[in-house]
């Protein structure tokens, strides 16, 4: 895969379009496959689609709600709304359904993926571009249905981050319009998930400064003879660089217009919440040693970037050995000056990886791969640059061999594309225990409600942490009902859906857990609207629950209250989120949550003003930026 074509030849070669199409095929097949399924979003995905319903009358100014809170425990959001703004047009054109949201998310990912293919061709030539196509296919196979089509903010940032790395590299190589691409891609990634902040800021900074440095270092020339002596590398006019940088600034301001408007109009602003969250973390950071270990656990050449997964576990040695091999080839390429552009790309990857290690060391709370899944993009690029470097070190094949290799490459890419298309399209939509419960509950609930009545949706939901409640708000609003949530959930449902006294007529409550449901059934003045038990094997589920109770009692402090099935029901999902739990506890709790939890929906038809204080919905929470 030599990359010694001239720049003009590389830019005139349109074969990259074929590579981009082949790489996009698995996602297109996935979109078609998802059209055959019915999906009821819950949790974060329901919150995301609520923002689709909000536009254009209430465009979101900030990103998805996150594990972010200020000193007064008011929940914050990730930095910005670009993931919603960019998908909304396609969402509306495709019909405004939940499938349309999946399809719109996947189409945006295709755009980012195609842009990355073009950038590689632009910098490295068609041979390296074909190799990148293979790497990209393996990478999106590792992403799976989840990261390619689910509108979850940590996932939508992955491919923009890949484009950011490539655009920064191109800016270093002297492509004067790449700062614009870097600003847009970096803004998209960072607005999706605040965890990209330590990487996006320096990368965008390099992309903005590199052309200026290159311009400053270019030799001045005022005569044709001087220009010939420097092979045309004369310093261009300042305007040649000022225009792209000016466009980059304008693009940045437009991309951040929502958060900037929130900053000057809301108190507290979302920026203030983010600063407070990281200034006073709820738990101590995991530390540099644990951060480096976590990085190496996820950087093996056949690890998470190939197979996906959410856990951070396993040996560090595959990651260490791969880094050594990659670095060795990179050093040889640099010493031989075989391809200076590749060497500069390797330096960029090395710097990004080092910053990433430090960033991971500052994570606090439970460590999951989604908090730093950008690492799989870095690993994919390392594999790409390693293969490119090895190809440069091998003897250049004869023209006849090159033709045979080109034919084999085409066949290989098509076959790999087909394999990945089958792989991702056959996967199940994640969290099926939750959305299938919503699929059973929401239509049954809607059929028993009065369209002229205003409903406050609440939940008593330790299993899904309100996930079914958010999904019910989404489904009922889509059907035309007037619904909203409590003020403490303003970051999730958006401020215009917050309901206070006088804003609602009746209260709907989503309840999870068998014992919990039985208690609600004993309440007076409460009507059960629908219920569902998604457990495929209740007996095995109960045995797992009993085992978890025994394990927790064996681990508890002597003076702590004993764990019972009832108390377990009220802390089930918290066992997955709270740091410090043993792997055995987390595995058992995961089996219970993923196995499904009985759920029901109840309606309180009493006049809210007549409900006794002890039974009334609490609207007095101060953990809200929009209290009642």
List keywords for this structure.
28 helices, two-stranded antiparallel sheet, disordered N terminus, alpha/beta, 6% strand, five-stranded mixed beta sheet, 628 residues
The dominant shape is globular
Q: Report how far apart the termini are.
A: 64 Å
Instruction: Report the sheet with the most strands, covering strand number, pairing sense and barrel closure.
Output: 5 strands, mixed
The largest sheet has its strands arranged as: 4-3-5-7-6
How many strand units? 7
Q: What's the helix count?
A: 28
Account of the 3D structure:
Helices cover 61% and strands 6% of the residues. It is of the alpha/beta class and 628 residues long. Among the domains are: 157-221 and 232-255, no CATH class; 283-394, no CATH class; 432-610, no CATH class. The strands form two sheets. The protein has a five-stranded mixed sheet with strand order 4-3-5-7-6. The protein has a two-stranded antiparallel ribbon with strand order 1-2. Helix 22 links the parallel strand 3 and strand 4. Helix 2 (15-34) packs parallel to helix 20 (399-425) and helix 8 packs antiparallel against helix 9.
């Amino acid at each position: 895969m030599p990359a010694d074509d001239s720049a003009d030849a590389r830019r005139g070669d349109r074969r990259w379009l074929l590579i981009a199409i082949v790489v996009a095929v698995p996602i297109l097949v996935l979109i078609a496959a998802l059209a055959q399924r019915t999906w009821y979003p819950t949790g974060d995905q329901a919150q995301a689609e609520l923002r689709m319903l909000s536009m254009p009358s209430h465009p979101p100014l900030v990103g998805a709600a996150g594990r972010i809170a200020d000193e007064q425990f008011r929940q914050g959001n990730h930095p910005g709304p670009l993931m919603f703004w960019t998908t909304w047009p396609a969402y509306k054109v495709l019909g405004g359904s939940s499938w349309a949201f999946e399809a719109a998310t996947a189409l945006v990912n295709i755009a980012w993926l195609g842009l990355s293919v073009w950038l590689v061709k632009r910098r490295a030539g068609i041979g390296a571009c074909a190799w990148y196509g293979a790497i990209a296919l393996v990478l999106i196979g590792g992403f799976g249905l989840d990261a390619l089509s689910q509108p979850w903010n940590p996932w939508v940032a992955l491919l923009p981050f890949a484009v950011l790395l490539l655009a920064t590299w191109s800016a270093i190589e002297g492509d004067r319009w790449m700062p614009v691409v870097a600003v847009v891609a970096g803004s998209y990634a960072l607005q999706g998930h605040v965890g990209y902040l330590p990487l996006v800021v320096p990368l965008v900074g390099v992309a903005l400064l590199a052309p200026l440095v290159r311009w400053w270092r270019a030799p001045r020339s005022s005569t044709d003879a001087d220009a010939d002596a420097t092979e045309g590398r004369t310093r261009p006019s300042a305007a040649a660089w000022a225009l792209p940088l000016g466009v980059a600034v304008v693009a940045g301001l437009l991309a951040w217009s929502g958060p900037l408007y929130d900053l000057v109009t809301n108190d507290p602003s979302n920026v203030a919440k983010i600063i407070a969250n990281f200034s006073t973390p709820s738990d101590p950071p995991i530390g540099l040693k644990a951060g480096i270990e976590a990085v190496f656990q996820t950087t093996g050449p056949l690890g998470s970037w190939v197979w996906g997964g959410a856990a951070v576990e396993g040996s560090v040695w595959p990651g260490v050995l791969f880094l050594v091999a990659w670095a060795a080839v990179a050093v040889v390429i640099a010493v031989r000056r075989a391809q200076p552009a590749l060497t500069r790309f390797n330096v960029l990857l090395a710097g990004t990886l080092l910053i990433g290690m430090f960033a991971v060391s500052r994570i606090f709370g439970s460590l999951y791969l989604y908090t730093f899944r950008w690492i799989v993009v870095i690993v994919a690029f390392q594999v790409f640059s390693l293969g490119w470097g090895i190809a440069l070190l091998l003897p250049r094949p004869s023209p006849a061999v090159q033709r045979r290799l080109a034919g084999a490459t085409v066949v290989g890419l098509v076959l790999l594309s087909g394999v990945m298309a089958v792989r991702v399209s056959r996967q199940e939509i994640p969290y099926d225990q939750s959305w299938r419960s919503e699929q059973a509950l929401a239509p049954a609930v809607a059929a028993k409600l009065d369209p002229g009545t205003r409903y406050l949706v609440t939940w008593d939901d330790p299993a899904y942490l309100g996930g079914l409640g958010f999904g019910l708000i989404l489904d009922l609003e889509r059907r035309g009902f007037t619904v909203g949530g409590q003020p403490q959930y303003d970051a999730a449902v958006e401020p215009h859906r917050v309901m206070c006294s006088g804003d609602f007529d009746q209260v709907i409550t989503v309840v999870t857990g068998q014992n919990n449901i039985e208690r609600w059934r004993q309440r007076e003045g409460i009507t059960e609207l629908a219920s569902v038990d998604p457990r495929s094997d209740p007996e095995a589920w109960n045995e797992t629950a009993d085992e978890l109770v025994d394990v927790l009692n064996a681990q508890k402090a002597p003076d702590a209250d004993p764990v019972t099935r009832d108390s377990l029901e009220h802390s089930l999902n918290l066992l997955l989120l709270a740091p410090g739990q043993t792997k055995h506890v987390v595995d058992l709790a995961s089996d219970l949550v993923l196995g499904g939890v009985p759920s029901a929906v109840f309606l309180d038809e009493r006049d809210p003003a007549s409900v006794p204080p002890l039974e009334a919905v609490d609207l007095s929470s101060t953990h809200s930026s929009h209290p009642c």
